[in-house]
């Protein structure tokens, strides 16, 4: 009985090494796919904003994202509907401060500097 256990153990140990070796060989032989090439042409984005001064953090998102996309070389436009339309009033834009983001007036100024069209 003891001899059987010993032979099983030795078999399992050698089998485990063989399995590990086969796995490593399979991984080494496998072709690693290349990263897909980024399209050379710009993509078109329409960002819709629905939140206004009642939720300053969400109101800021379309403007920050649009600026980032534009700086990455894409075509972007912003559409504002519902409560978001009040953000175009100077008094509101100057007094909206998002949590964890720069003040809204800075995000709006960047969008204007990048000449991103805003539709209400």
Draw up the topology in text.
Elements lengths: L1 H28 L14 E6 L6 H16 L3 E6 L9 H6 L8 H10 L4 E2 L1
Describe this structure in words.
By secondary structure, the protein is mainly alpha-helical. Strands 1-2-3 form a 3-stranded parallel sheet, with helices on one face. The protein has 4 helices and 3 strands, in the order αβαβααβ. The protein has helices spanning 2-29, 56-71, 90-95, 104-113, and strands at 44-49, 75-80, 118-119. It folds into 2 domains: 1-33; 44-119, no CATH class.
Give a count of the beta strands, DSSP E runs of length 2 or more.
3
**What radius of gyration results from the CA coordinates?**
29 Å
Largest sheet: 3 strands, parallel
What percent of the residues sit in helical stretches (DSSP H or I)?
40-55%
Order of helices and strands: HEHEHHE
- CA(first)-CA(last) distance: 84 Å
Strand numbers in spatial order across the main sheet = 1-2-3
Percentage of residues in strands: 5-15%
Low-confidence stretches: none
């Amino acid at each position: 009985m003891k001899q059987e256990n010993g032979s099983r153990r030795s078999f399992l140990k050698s089998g485990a090494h063989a399995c590990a070796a086969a796995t490593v060989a399979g991984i080494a032989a496998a072709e690693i796919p290349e990263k897909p090439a980024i399209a050379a042409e710009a993509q078109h984005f329409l960002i819709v904003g629905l939140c206004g001064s009642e939720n300053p953090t969400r109101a800021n998102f379309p403007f920050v994202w649009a600026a980032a996309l534009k700086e990455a070389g894409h075509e972007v436009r912003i559409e504002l509907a519902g409560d978001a339309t009040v953000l175009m009033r100077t008094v509101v834009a100057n007094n909206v401060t998002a949590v964890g983001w720069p003040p809204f007036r800075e995000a709006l100024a960047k969008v204007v500097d990048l000449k991103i069209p805003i539709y209400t």
